[in-house]
């Protein structure tokens, strides 16, 4: 089977790239190990444990790809405020969408909801889809790539994009070097119901063991549900995962300082080891890495998928401009334009998340005093907070056309 472009990975980022190139004239094939089927959405159904905090820039990309309406028709949870505080002191900061005259800071959306809305659009397009297709081998063939699937089928394309996640098979088989390190933390994720409504606010407490986030969810008007991401050391994560439901809810409420009252219900928990990776190069001749295949960061601020959507939008923009100029899409000089635009931004975000993580894990008393006074100081600087909010919304920086207001 032959195509002009093969995208391995039909997750959120790979699907977005395919749709962004839908009218490029390229014959596109999206390959994924899953079945690529869309489950009927049940409005009263349980929440999926994995969620993303979609920025305004991501929303604009999804709107222009014709996907946002499908997401909104399922389930989205806007948040207008963010409250962050240090559990080991008195420092706190409050961010508000109103500070930059925006309606919301973003939307908390279940990954499955975003994925299914993207798949709906893909199934309605002329883009080729190949599900239940696991990549087994990869090698150069002439001026392109030869992909061998687990069932023996072979695929060929001059341009290959890896969008197959943090444990990317394409990255591994292509021999792309990465820098990576273990955070020595695990994240417990689930959905919980609280005694008091979340007030369309994203809450984050920095504990001695790691950050704990309560992200607002809404189901049929009920604002008592939150998605939690609880980052802690492995031994503590193991202890928490072994607790029965009632004991876990009590530990969670206590760690959150009962900000939303008692935790009255909890869905099944997932425990995810946290590891940061960054590919030393995003591109080589005929190959580009996007999303988690290129970089994976701490879920501290829910920015991972936003970085991935910007990767997809920038790569699509670079390829479209190259095709308009009659250039070869698989030329490394063309693909390097994508790398030059995205790598500095992604590295800056990774460094910021790493800095936050280390700052709030620092135990010496002088550093604790400094970070608490720093949080309170920032809270009294409206201009600084407004700049942070604009950046979180995706209103500043080198934005691709798909993400611009």
From TrEMBL:
Keywords: FAD, Flavoprotein, Monooxygenase, Oxidoreductase. GO terms for cellular component: ubiquinone biosynthesis complex. Component of the Ubi complex metabolon, which regroups five ubiquinone biosynthesis proteins (UbiE, UbiF, UbiG, UbiH and UbiI) and two accessory factors (UbiK and the lipid-binding protein UbiJ). Pathway: Cofactor biosynthesis; ubiquinone biosynthesis. Belongs to the UbiH/COQ6 family. This is 2-octaprenyl-3-methyl-6-methoxy-1,4-benzoquinol hydroxylase. Residues 3-350 form the FAD-binding domain. Its cofactor is FAD. One of its GO terms (biological process) is ubiquinone biosynthetic process. Signal peptide: none annotated. The keyword RNA-binding does not apply. One of its GO terms (molecular function) is 2-polyprenylphenol 6-hydroxylase activity. It comes from Aquipseudomonas alcaligenes. It holds the Pfam family FAD_binding_3.
